[in-house]
Amino acid sequence: MTHGPALASGANMTAISISVGIIFIVGAVIAVVVWSYFRLQSHRADAVAMAEYRKLAEEAVANQQELRTELAKLTEHVQAVEQLMRDVG
């Protein structure tokens, strides 16, 4: 009869080990899912920020082109005034 409780405690340890193992595995899976979710959210936020930067860069290029056009017109006017001053002087 001394072997009966030993077998029962061994069976208990196996059941406990399996239960703890399952809980550990489920916890690890939940941790990985939560980590992956927040990493995905971070990547989405980065993508939104990059889209905003791209839009800002496109606007900056358009503004630069406008400024270059205005500068070319101003240069033409200045050259005309300089030519007029040379003709008069």
SSE order, one letter for each helix or strand: H
Outline: rod-shaped
Helices, by number, come to 1
Distance between the termini: 129 Å
Explain what this protein looks like in three dimensions.
- With 89 residues, the protein is an all-alpha fold.
- The protein has 1 helix and no strands.
Question: In summary, what is this structure?
Answer:
The chain is an all-alpha fold. It has one helix spanning 3-88.
In terms of topology, how is this protein built?
Elements (H helix, E strand, L loop, with lengths): L2 H86 L1
Keywords:
mainly alpha, 89 residues, rod-shaped
